[in-house]
Design a protein that fits this description.
Length: 154
């Protein structure tokens, strides 16, 4: 399709066949992604680009940003992938909210590493109750760290 921009309106595009298109201005959604809204239609811009250039979303897949930039919705930066691939991307690009980056985190990475050191060093004598009190957390938090249910990567 050969689109040409209107000389006075930069949001209007016309084809030689007389089809007229209006550019929709994206807005930022609550997740930090650009979205397109038009009446009842609402979709993330990256998903639209992925649908047009890579086909309909296969069942069970999510849209990924290869470079980790949620605002870079160009065709060669978006693709379909598994949630595991998407999370691996986030790890590579440092865009996860795990650990101390999580707004609900009580402990810092340094504190968790110190807790783990103390648990290893004094595996028989370390009192979980004392650690919990020292770091102002619940005993279950210390047990979860010890068992690897939380902060397993730290």
């Amino acid at each position: 399709m050969n689109l040409k921009q209107h000389p006075e309106r930069d949001d209007i595009w016309v084809t030689p066949e007389g089809r007229v298109f209006r550019e929709l201005t994206p807005s930022l959604d609550d997740g930090g992604y650009m979205q397109i809204r038009n009446g009842n239609f609402r979709r993330r811009r990256g998903v639209l680009v992925c649908e047009v250039y890579h086909g309909t979303r296969p069942r069970g897949l999510v849209m990924r940003h290869r470079d980790g930039d949620s605002l870079n919705d160009v065709e060669d930066n978006v693709c379909w992938g598994t949630q595991a691939e998407n999370m691996a991307d986030a790890m590579v690009h440092g865009t996860t909210t795990r650990g101390g980056k999580n707004e609900h985190a009580v402990l810092t990475l340094m504190q968790v590493r110190e807790i783990k050191r103390r648990l290893e060093r004094f595996s028989h004598g370390t009192n979980v109750e004392q650690l919990a009190k020292h770091y102002n957390v619940n005993r279950a938090t210390i047990y979860d760290i010890k068992a690897g249910r939380t902060w397993s990567w730290a």
